C-alpha cells in the first residue's frame, strides 16, 4: 500500500461494498471507444490499472479474453475477484505494475489516474506497454448543470481536503510525455438509474474522502443526502432516480 493516498487507502478499504453498489457503470459508448481509440479486440492483452471493484473491468471483458486487473486495495481486489473470477487479479499499483516489459497491448485507468498521476507512473505504464500499444484514461463525471447534482457537490466538497480530484486538473501535469502521443478526448453522456439509496446515498458514501471519515460524520452526510432526495422538487416521491453523468475518455499511443 506504499504510495497510496490516505483517503484511498482508508476509504476504499472500508467501503468497497458501497463502491460496488453506488458507483455507476460505464456507458455502452465506452465499448466503441475501446474498439476504435484503443484498438482492443478479443485477443488483446489489456490491463485495468487501479481496477477497484471491477466496474470498468467488466466492460473490458466484453471485448477481450485477456484482461488483467491491478489494484492495491485488498477489499477492492476481493470484490473484483468474486464478481469476475475469470480475470487475473494482481496486487500492485502505478509505480510497481507486476508485469514484464512491453507485455500488454492496452492499459486503461478508469476513475483512477488522478490518484497516481506522475512522471514515475507514466514511465511505469510505458514500460509494460508494447510500442504502438494504447493508453486509455476514462472518468464518469457528475453533470453539475443539473441543480440537485450541483447541490450534492456543494455538500461533499468541504470534506475533500487534499484528495486528488479529476476536476482539479493536476492529473494533466505528466502528460504529454515523451513516451506517448498527445491525448485525444471523447465525451459521452449516460445516467445511473436506481433507488436514491444506491445512486445517491451509497454513491457518495463510496467517495474516498467521505468513506475515510468517522462513522458519525458519514451518518450526518447520509442524513443530509436523504433529506435532499426526500425534499428536492425533482426527486421528491420518486422510487427510481436517473443520476446524470458525462463520461470523459482520453487515449494515446505508446511511441
Give the structure's gist in a few sentences.
With 255 residues, the chain is of the alpha/beta class. Helix content is 37%, strand content 23%.
Record field, number of beta strands: 7
Per DSSP, what share of the residues sits in E-state strands of 2 or more residues? 15-25%
Mean pLDDT score, rounded? 92
Helix content: 25-40%
Unreliable runs, pLDDT <50, ≥5 residues?
none
Tally of individual helices:
11
Alpha-beta content class: alpha/beta
Q: Termini separation (Å)? A: 30 Å
Assembly type: single chain
Q: Tell me the strand order in the biggest sheet.
A: 3-2-1-4-5-7-6
Q: Characterize the biggest β-sheet.
A: 7 strands, mixed
The whole-angstrom Rg is: 18 Å
Shape: globular
In N-to-C order, the SSE pattern is: HHHEHEHEEHHEHEHHHE
Q: What does it look like?
A:
This protein has 255 residues and is of the alpha/beta class. The chain is built from eleven helices and seven strands. It has a seven-stranded mixed β-sheet with strand order 3-2-1-4-5-7-6. α5 links the parallel β2 (66-70) and β3. It is globular. The chain starts with 5 loop residues before the first helix and ends with a strand. The model has no long low-confidence stretch (mean pLDDT 92).
Output the keywords.
255 residues; alpha/beta; 11 helices; 7 strands; 37% helix; globular
Task: Give the topology, please.
Blueprint: H1 6-14, H2 16-22, H3 29-36, E1 45-49, H4 57-61, E2 66-70, H5 74-83, E3 88-90, E4 104-110, H6 113-116, H7 119-128, E5 129-142, H8 147-156, E6 184-194, H9 196-205, H10 208-211, H11 215-231, E7 241-253
Parallel strand pairs: 1-2, 1-4, 2-3, 4-5
Antiparallel strand pairs: 5-7, 6-7
